[in-house]
Amino acid sequence: MNIPDSKKPRIVIIGGGFGGIALARKLRRKAVQLVIIDRHNYHNFQPLMYQVATGGIEAGSITYPIRKIFQEFRDCYFRLGHVRDVDAAAQVIHTDIGELHYDYLVIATGSKTNFFGNKEIERQTMNMKSIPQALNLRSLIFENFEHAVLTADTAERKCLMNFVIVGGGPTGVELAGALAEMKKGILHKDYPDLEINYMEIHLIQSGDRILNTMSPQSSEASERYLRELGVQIHKNIRVTGYDGRTVRTNSDLNFESSCVIWTAGVMGKPIAGIPAAAISRSNRILVNEFNQVHGLRNVFAIGDIAQMNSVAYPEGHPMMAQPAIQQGEKLADNLLLAISGRQMRPFQYRDKGSMATIGRNKAVVDLPSVHFHGFFAWLLWIFVHLFSLIGFRNKAVVLMNWVYNYVRFDREGRLIIRPYKKKSFTTFTTDEV
Amino acid sequence: MNIPDSKKPRIVIIGGGFGGIALARKLRRKAVQLVIIDRHNYHNFQPLMYQVATGGIEAGSITYPIRKIFQEFRDCYFRLGHVRDVDAAAQVIHTDIGELHYDYLVIATGSKTNFFGNKEIERQTMNMKSIPQALNLRSLIFENFEHAVLTADTAERKCLMNFVIVGGGPTGVELAGALAEMKKGILHKDYPDLEINYMEIHLIQSGDRILNTMSPQSSEASERYLRELGVQIHKNIRVTGYDGRTVRTNSDLNFESSCVIWTAGVMGKPIAGIPAAAISRSNRILVNEFNQVHGLRNVFAIGDIAQMNSVAYPEGHPMMAQPAIQQGEKLADNLLLAISGRQMRPFQYRDKGSMATIGRNKAVVDLPSVHFHGFFAWLLWIFVHLFSLIGFRNKAVVLMNWVYNYVRFDREGRLIIRPYKKKSFTTFTTDEV
Known about the structure:
The structure is a homodimer of 433-residue chains.
Chain A: E1 10-14, H1 18-27, E2 33-38, E3 42-44, H2 49-53, E4 63-65, H3 66-69, E5 76-80, E6 83-87, E7 92-95, E8 98-101, E9 104-107, E10 111-113, H4 119-124, H5 131-150, H6 154-160, E11 162-166, H7 170-190, E12 200-205, H8 216-228, E13 232-235, E14 239-242, E15 246-249, E16 255-256, E17 259-262, E18 266-268, E19 285-286, E20 299-301, E21 306-307, H9 321-339, E22 354-359, E23 362-366, E24 371-373, H10 375-388, H11 392-408
Parallel strand pairs in A: 1-2, 1-9, 2-5, 9-20, 11-12, 11-17, 12-13, 19-21
Antiparallel strand pairs in A: 3-4, 6-7, 7-8, 10-18, 14-15, 15-16, 22-23, 23-24
Helix pairs in contact in A: 1-9, 5-6
């Protein structure tokens, strides 16, 4: 890879997510050379992906060109590419665009959906880990309604209007809420010739409460909110299979659904070349308190991919934006310490709390010392998310969309831009563009 | 197709573009049943497509859900489908979602790119007639720059940074201007390690002036503007082939380019079942002054697809939004007259003028009685386009983007959301999502 030689130590960052960007930003104008490699030319704001999938905002409003972030950096290079493996002995990575020597390597590749080895579920369910996946989901949701209008078979129509969300974490809960609000505010107007009451939204949670990483109070409030919106919550149930039509579970409960969204878990996405001893059960890369990968020199991992076991977090930190950002920022300091031959300082996670929105005026917030929900929680959620988006234009466009959606009870992004060609049991086909 | 029976006459409209929507809107709350069929579930605002392709605005900002337009209509049905043919004798259309009887049929299917029979050009060039095509073009533009960064071969780098636009109509001119502004304002900041001066933009026009449907003054001004922006204009030249690397012309001039955008012409896209005698040389459907298709009863055509020859327009009206909208509105009146057994009135095109924007503060405007260009032409262009967009939210979001882009000399939509897999001569590949 044609990165110019530099007298400064070269730090290669794989991944332009929350962790990678936080790290790079803190190294701006320091005496290092930065190379950022990502498979996409944009950073994306994962927490709002469900709004892209449900037409509330545009993909372009929660993504940001990575090159723009680095416009004013010196000795900093972005490369669009896919890393194949790392050769830690030679301090080299191999990619589809050539090989590259590093002085320090930071793996910030995030996570991928965990299907727990079930290939059928992997093939048949919809996911929401990337922007194209969110757009596919958006297409499928509206394609299903268009097909429901056409069929004379009531069972098939109900199947097309039945949404099953597997996983009661923030993604599943927020998506269920958004679908329920769409049913209430939009679909009966868009589809006057469809019995919108046929539409059902099922949220399936394997544990005994949803949002089980939050406080019991928040779980309870969010369950109440979802039930008020008409979402059917099924707890202590595991989905065991889905053939494209029937969702099978480990109970008597089965569902007929054309749209099953799998948000039941994430796992690491390590890079070939990391020793097996440094890979955890959940496929994350084991790191010490300095984010150093076990057993490797000058190789670090941060964010979802990194698992830093501690007394407080025996299975590593939660796979969310906050630990990634904090690790990225801390590692920036530590890399500068290491370069100057000084002792690195251990990372300490500061839990700022967590929150989830269920719908209009409805959110739950857990701060370290207080839990609350309702309108003010919802306002705080909006404020925090707007504030966290990169770029003034994104903030402004998202705010404008939210105000519009709120005032008009609407979401205008219900567009099937690229049809999602689901291998469907239905006989209907829609021609390609 | 399961459309409820109605005592009112059924008007079936094929196509939710400018013409179809204008027609349907004027028939709102009249004593007719409306069925609108389109292959997309959205209306799109074609005149701003080039801004989607160059990252100035998001696709969702110039598209509008068709169902939302019809939310408050009574006895009005939208169907997502593709019409296969029309059986005029039986008054039935056949579609991929079933057949449908009509009392009145309106064909408003628009136009498609005209490659003048050249299959190689059709296969290899980029087009901009649909939103997915505009998004593909956007992806290719930025993929080419990412590849240019990687190659050590200067000839290849130049080829990747060489843009050839074939066709000097409004689309080609506006696209050339947008690319030139991108070079000036963004690319040198995004790609500090690339010689942005290698980037060339060529506009090839077969005639002796660009914008040749506009006034000579406007052609002259737009040529001057483009040259000021660094666009190279080649007139009286026809492109005869493009193998994915070399653009061949009918002159000595050849170009090496990885991105050739074909805007050299459009043609009709008639539906099977229309008698051959009613199809014009440019594949449009010949209609009389009431937009009735030659030789058919109760079948009408409006917009780009309709060719209404007259003394003033011996080859039909220009294939633009205005004639489509005016024909749609007139046909609404005429259908009501026909239904009540009265005489229809002939369509008369009122040319409101035309305009094109070349860049920042630079546009040309031809009004019926006056031609002007410069800052006020540009303001008028902005005002007219904003005003014509459907929906308050779209207007607001587009305006906000334009203000931002203007103030910051920026376009933030430079995202490769779905990589465009060009069968390229380059050896670089980018993994799929």
